[in-house]
Amino acid sequence: MAKDWQDYELIDTGGGEKLERWGDVVLRRPDPQIIWPLHAETAAWKNADGHYHRSSSGGGHWTFRRSLPERWNISYGPLKFHIKPTNFKHTGLFPEQAFNWSWIMDKIRGAGRQVRVLNLFAYTGGATAASAAAGAEVCHVDAAKGMVQWAKENAQLSGLGEAPIRYITDDVFKFVEREIRRGRQYEAIIMDPPSYGRGPNGEVWKLEENLYPFLESCASILSDRPLFVLVNSYTAGLSPTVLHNLLHMAIRRKRGGSLNCGEIGLPITSSGLVLPCGIFGRWENDD
Question: Are 268 and 13 in contact (CB under 8 A)?
């Protein structure tokens, strides 16, 4: 559970929505996991600075009670991020991933050697910044040019503008295939694959069909002294046990090591409950 935030807070949940504080900005957004009722629509809910309204025909739009900056910054330890409400309800950051960022930094700092990290489906670079802040050399890969630029800006904001980070705008599958041919290897691989997607030439990605062979491809570019593989998933219906089995078959069966898989969540201030926010799977080398 991501519980060490100062600049982010999940204030309340209910009725299919969540009320969150991002720095000094309060946003109200839908969340499909929240199928319990709202206890009371308090003034905090009614006075949220921004409210994303989902459309019955798909998509949605924001309304704002006050003029907000185009973007603002929040911090998590040494890491800093630009926050910006997007047309798809997101803000450019998944705060529950702080649970993984802390683990990534601990693993890299504890390695006692140079670590090369490959971050795939890397989005706005939370894991990239965490890896670089811990001293790793990072290759950041995402197919969306705008997200790669956002990741660069987050790294600069965190004082990592001169860190050894390669930013690649490319289809991650083709990139991994080229890395295999080039013989390039990494000590750590991080990925956050989508449930469904299309490549630039119409290639179709379905997680249920493609994740295992992709994990096998990634396993072949792990170095002789790998450190870890971390997989995140927001795919509905995919259990931590399934992720455990995939990682076991693709990596641990050949490399040994240990596995830890489970749910990620955020604590809800008003109720003390936890909002589930996807699953994670971690393979670690025991050597």
Answer: yes
pLDDT digits (tens, 9 = 90+) for 223-250: 999 999 999 999 888 999 999 999 999 9
Tokens for 279, please give them.
């699953």
Torsional class of 286: left (φ above 0), alpha (ψ -120 to 50), beta (otherwise): alpha
H-helix or E-strand spanning residue 127: helix 126-133
Task: Flag whether pLDDT at 169 surpasses 90.
Answer: yes
Q: Residue 39 and residue 64: Cα distance in Å, rounded? A: 23
Q: Which of 210, 169, 175 is nearest to 193 (CA)?
A: 210
Query: How far is it, in rounded angstroms, from Cα 149 to Cα 208?
Result: 30
Burial class (CB in 10 A: 0-12, 13-18, 19+), 150: buried
Would you tell me how many other CB atoms lie within 10 Å of the CB of residue 86? 11
Q: Is the pLDDT of residue 199 over 70?
A: no
Q: Where is 109: in which H helix or E strand?
A: helix 98-111
Beta strands per DSSP E along the chain = 8-14, 17-22, 25-30, 50-54, 60-64, 72-76, 79-83, 116-120, 137-142, 165-169, 188-191, 196-198, 204-206, 228-233, 258-267, 274-284
Tell me 96's DSSP state: G
Q: Encoding tokens for residue 27?
A: 């946003």
Question: Could you give the C-alpha distances from 143 to 97, 102, 147, 207, in angstroms and in order?
Answer: 20, 26, 8, 16
Separation between Cα atoms, residue 237 and residue 36, nearest integer Å:
19
Dihedral sign, Cα of residue 155, residue 157, residue 264, residue 14: negative
- CA–CA distance, 93 with 206 (Å, rounded to integer): 23
How far is residue 208's CA from residue 191's CA, in Å, rounded to a whole number? Answer: 15
Distance in angstroms (rounded) separating the CA atoms of residues 216 and 141: 18
